[in-house]
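To the wet lab folks,

You asked to see what we're planning to order before we commit. Fair enough. Below is the target structure as tokens, and below that is the sequence we designed to fit it. If anything looks off to you, flag it before the synthesis order goes out.
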């Protein structure tokens, strides 16, 4: 009984379909997400994109979180990288190792890291 007539409903709400401009806006947003958190498989193939963001701090936080989460117990964490476009800024195989079931970040004075110019 209290429902508006179809004419009153049409006058109150905008019933026009979404314009094509709104879909282009989503594509532009996707292009802005240059920083990615990627899981890499054998031979350097990309297995899964875990996150995309315009802010690199978000994917760096996700990188740390996934390394800690996926390396529980004695298991080896997956090979994860943080990429900005085509450049890698973090790499789980290069920057982290698992010792006694715990993930440790390699420091610059870690003896496992090869130093250039010595040898």
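Sequence we intend to order:
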């Amino acid at each position: 009984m209290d429902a508006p007539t179809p004419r009153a409903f049409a006058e109150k709400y905008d019933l026009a379909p979404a314009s094509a401009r709104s879909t282009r806006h989503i594509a532009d947003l996707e292009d802005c997400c240059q920083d990615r958190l990627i899981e890499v498989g054998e031979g350097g193939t990309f297995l899964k994109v875990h996150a995309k963001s315009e802010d690199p701090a978000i994917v760096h936080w996700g990188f740390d979180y996934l390394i800690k989460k996926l390396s529980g117990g004695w298991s080896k964490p997956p090979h994860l990288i943080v990429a900005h476009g085509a450049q890698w800024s973090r790499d789980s195989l290069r920057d982290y190792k698992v010792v006694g079931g715990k993930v440790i970040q390699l420091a610059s004075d870690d003896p496992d890291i090869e130093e250039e110019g010595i040898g």
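Structural context that might help your review: The beta strands are 35-40, 46-53, 79-84, 87-91, 96-99, 102-105. Residues 56-70 form the longest helix (15 residues).

Thanks,
Computational group
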